[in-house]
Structure formats: structure tokens, C-alpha cells
Amino acid sequence: MEDDKSIMQYLKHIGGTPLFNLEIEAYKSAGKLNIVSLWTSIRNENEKKIKTLESSVVTYPYSPELYYNLYLLYSEKGDKIKARENLRLAQQIDPSLK
Hints:
The chain is mainly alpha-helical. It has one domain (about 1-95). Helix content is about 80%, strand content about 0%. It has five helices and no strands. The protein is elongated, with a radius of gyration of 16 Å. The relative contact order is 0.11.
């Protein structure tokens, strides 16, 4: 299981790059469908978290924590534009955030 954790960290690191799709295909070809399944599960869970946080910022638009958590999730997803925008919004509310 520790190996799966390191693979998930690696996939998070390369997410949003052309290498990511090549690696996923390599795991599929190698018969490591558990890796692909685990990655899909994590991605689906993160999408749910993003949707929840996006609706929460409508209700609580002055919460730096909500924007910061969106920044983290979008960064993990590989969406640098949305990640930077949410970090900017969090820092506008709380300039001490880095």
C-alpha cells in the first residue's frame, strides 16, 4: 500500500502535464488497474470537494480558508489558472497567507 501512496503523490505532481496521460496508459498496459481505479476515485472525490467549496464561497465570500482550499484542490488537479485565482482571492482577504 505504501507503494500506491508514492505513486499517487507522483501522479499528483505530474497532473495536468502530457506525461500524466502517458503514465496512466502505462499503468493500464501493465495491468495495474488498481492504480488507475484509486486515481479515479481520488479525482472524483476532489471534484466533489471542489463543487462543495465553490457553492460555499457563494454563501461565505469572505472566507480565506474556502479560497485557500480551492487553491490546493485546483493545484492538485493541475488547473494552474483557477488555483492562482483562488490563492489571490484568499490573500486579498488574509494577506498573511502564502
